[in-house]
Known about the structure:
Layout: H1 2-5, H2 16-19, H3 31-51, H4 64-82, H5 86-103, H6 106-119
Helix pairs in contact: 3-4, 3-5, 3-6
Amino acid sequence: xxxxxxxxxxxxxxxxxxxxxxxxxxxxxxxxxxxxxxxxxxxxxxxxxxxxxxxxxxxxxxxxxxxxxxxxxxxxxxxxxxxxxxxxxxxxxxxxxxxxxxxxxxxxxxxxxxxxxxxxxx
Length: 122
């Protein structure tokens, strides 16, 4: 199911989740990094919903390209800033996406995340 809601995470690695098992707690993120991570997961979730024609998702600008670039930049920045590897970053993104999906909260984050996306210059 998560593969359907987070297709952009597949860009990182196919074996990412297993590489980071147990490492989430070991490397706490700064609030700004956590917010960027959460927004990257929200963009992936909403972009996927847009691709499925979800009416609520289509109320936002298309996120397939801008959201993907944001996702990629956030992933790279997390690796640079924290020393996490691709697998650890992918596991964190997957975890965030699962939380958003189960809580049905991606759309609640979108107003703030869109501000973050616009501020990124993408």
